[in-house]
């Protein structure tokens, strides 16, 4: 693929991203900034982050197919790609059924949206697909550069690589809490993991496929599950947890600092020292 993401990037909600933060993240050596949530079809934030930097890639994680018109997204993609060649990756996905009243036949929606991106001239290598289950993972390899799984573990990465084959992009997100006190780390990680994700069918189904019992998913998640989905510890411990995704077959891992509303730079700096 043309866009070079590097081995590690950061994932942060759109509201918490600024051009100033992007410049700092680039200086620390990260390869990509992933815009979390459902950024609008104009992709203005992605453009502003690219304008403020010179080498780091920017990706969307993800543009929601139900709310962002594909033709508008396609035009936005071409505007940004012309201005910043080989630095923008368009991540797209369908979100989850509970968030969209008209959510029907999600697989068909993905296929039709990718068809529209084809018509808009968005290249296969310039886009990625949010994917968890086997069917959509396979589609991501067929119709895009590859997959951007969210709320996963290295075991999912291992299984995903087997489905994707050796050449497709695999760029999972993983939440981190730079905190050595396990109880405190779980207090930070559990609320954003539980609500909404442990109450959404696509994420719960994925965890069940990975072998997690209902008893560990229910009631806010067991400590073991929260520890698996929200890495905690010192920087070296978290770095080893992130690196496990690469060992399992990922090309790139984007770390998601918790809590979301905290200043992420101390965590980014500490992890950069451990990772690079």
Quick take:
The protein is of the alpha/beta class and 276 residues long. It is built from twelve helices and eleven strands. The longest helix is centred in the N-terminal third of the chain and has 14 residues, at 70-83.
Structure description:
With 276 residues, the protein is of the alpha/beta class. Helices cover 45% and strands 17% of the residues. The protein has helices spanning 19-28, 44-51, 70-83, 106-119, 134-143, 154-164, 182-194, 201-209, 214-217, 223-229, 235-247, 265-275, and strands at residues 8-13, 32-36, 57-61, 63-64, 88-93, 127-129, 146-147, 169-170, 173-178, 230-233, 253-257. The model has no long low-confidence stretch (mean pLDDT 96). The chain has a single domain, classed as TIM Barrel, CATH 3.20.20. Strands 1, 2, 3, 4, 5, 6, 9, 10 and 11 form a nine-stranded parallel β-sheet that branches. Strands 7-8 form a two-stranded parallel ribbon.
DSSP strand (E) fraction?
A: 15-25%
How many domain regions? Answer: 1
- The name of the CATH topology is TIM Barrel
* Mean pLDDT figure: 96
DSSP summary: helix tally: 12
* Total number of beta strands: 11
Distance between the termini: 23 Å
Low-confidence stretches: none
**What structural category characterises the helix and strand content?**
alpha/beta
Q: Which secondary structure elements does this structure contain, and how are they paired or packed?
A:
Blueprint: E1 8-13, H1 19-28, E2 32-36, H2 44-51, E3 57-61, E4 63-64, H3 70-83, E5 88-93, H4 106-119, E6 127-129, H5 134-143, E7 146-147, H6 154-164, E8 169-170, E9 173-178, H7 182-194, H8 201-209, H9 214-217, H10 223-229, E10 230-233, H11 235-247, E11 253-257, H12 265-275
Parallel strand pairs: 1-2, 1-11, 2-3, 3-5, 4-5, 5-6, 7-8, 9-10, 9-11
